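Quick check before the chapter quiz. The format below is the same one you will see on the exam, so make sure you can read both the input and the output lines.
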Amino acid sequence: MKILITGANGQLGKALRKVFEGSPLGSSVIYASHADLDIANGEQLSRLIEDEGVTHIVNCAAFTDVDRAEDNKADCTAVNNDALKKLAIAADNHGVKIIHISTDFVFDGQTHCAYSESAKANPVSHYGASKRAGETALLALAPESIIIRTSWLYNLDSENNFPAKIISKAHSENKLSVVDDQIGSPTNAFDLARAILKILSTPQWFPGIYHYCNSGLCSRYDFAKAILRLAGLNDRVELIPVSSDNFAAGSGAMRPPFSALNTSKIRLTYGVETPHWVDSLDHAIKTWQH
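Here is the expected output.
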């Protein structure tokens, strides 16, 4: 087995590096950032696959700035859909299996039940639409692929995520406004990385769409409260709950108000664990602080 991880400098890519380096598969992984590999370049992809004997690809490369995607639709589509098509074609031509990371933003959030993999997709932002288009293209071009949708992903080794931003702002601001009407499940990137390792370590391969997130639900406001409490910063800043309408007016993309994901399929199929989001957040903050 030879594994290529694209988007290796992102939140999940960094977590995968740490998780894989401590595993028996650690010596069988190639880590590629955008500077190392342009997944939109089919010829470059094919050469790498052939030269390195790649058998599996974990695609973490993505345009993930939800608000910026509204003003840069072509750039967003180029990464999340067009480049993914090139990756799918190159992989399928060489018999390479793909694990591709997608998002809860493929749903509109107009429900109160956790979304199953078979629930109808109806994205409300260009980011979500581009990711859904990528899913559809991937399954058409490389039907043996696995797609993992996740939600509210974070890794405190990176700066561009919700917990890192809350902690940073707590050191520089007296008041923070956080929406209290968006409900979902935070996901520790290291938990998702361990789930991916489990899949790749399993002899059988079951293609299709799966959902993975930490267990339990919370609002963004509750998430922020927990971050401040666990980081020992709750006395430094006043947290103010606000509605999405008031907070996000004119700020860019719409968000699904409810984006909980049902993870029973991936747990039953691959035996992966989905720790409670508070426990995973606590562990992440303690590890980051030390």
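If your answer matched, good. The mean pLDDT is 94.
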